[in-house]
Amino acid sequence: MFTDMDTSKTLSTTFKEAKKSPLEMTTQVLSSGFWSLSQNYTFNIPKVLETRISDYSKFYSEKYQGRKLTWLLNHSWGELYFRAASRKFLFTVTTAQMVVLLKFNDVDVLTRPQLQRELDIPAEVLNSVLASLVKADLLKLPSRTTFSSALPGDTSFALNQKFISKKVKMDLSKLQMAARSEVEVKKEQSEMERDLEKDREFVIQATIVRVMKMRKRVQHTSLITEVLAGFPPLQAEGRDGEEMRRHPHRERLPEARRRLQGLLRVHLLKRLQEMLK
């Protein structure tokens, strides 16, 4: 691992001397067998950056024949200068934030579909980038609009030409990480709720089968009541809590009925009327 770091430093210095450019680029070439890094996503990059990457790849292949470089854009970052209100700011940004901001060099207003189409960037990554730039006040939404992933597709994002900050240097990369964490947390919560829903349905179904094995025949209402009696009552506060105390299993009633209908459909249970035909 330490050898990779030393080699990367030497390679970067040699490349800068061999291929001079106003765009300064520092690379870290890491052996895939020792570093648990992966290319989670890619996106289109500006021509000037693409050319610099191509030059480095050619430079590297001439030194190490047979080796292949995989560029991890999701782990890279850079620095951008931004001028607003007669002041010059220096932003530390992720590469995803960089490519989005550079799109506003040509136009002042863009929509999310336009950015996604031109950059070919995953929707969840673009959402975290836009959320971070809106939070930093670099991008503006229409009045009385707050950012969310459910915003209409034609919602416009405008570059804030009147951006003001007491800080001349700002690290915006942390804002994207925070925004991405919120998106991932919500996604995990949604997946967890779906898993819990499935588990709960399986438990209700197993309880129905267990009751039927013991009783053989039972009235529909009695079966539902007996099945729900085996579950702890749901808790609630206030006015809803009083109603729930009178009917503690009301919220689970639709689930029990759905599971019962499911067992009837797969012929694990039969209605008495069908058996008498």
From TrEMBL:
InterPro entries in the cross-refs: Cullin (IPR045093), Cullin-like_AB (IPR059120), Cullin_homology (IPR016158), Cullin_homology_sf (IPR036317), Cullin_neddylation_domain (IPR019559), WH-like_DNA-bd_sf (IPR036388), WH_DNA-bd_sf (IPR036390)
Residues covered by the Cullin family profile domain: 1-134
SMART domains: CULLIN, Cullin_Nedd8
A GO BP annotation: ubiquitin-dependent protein catabolic process
GO MF assignments: ubiquitin protein ligase binding
Family from the record: Belongs to the cullin family.
Name of the molecule in the record: Cullin family profile domain-containing protein
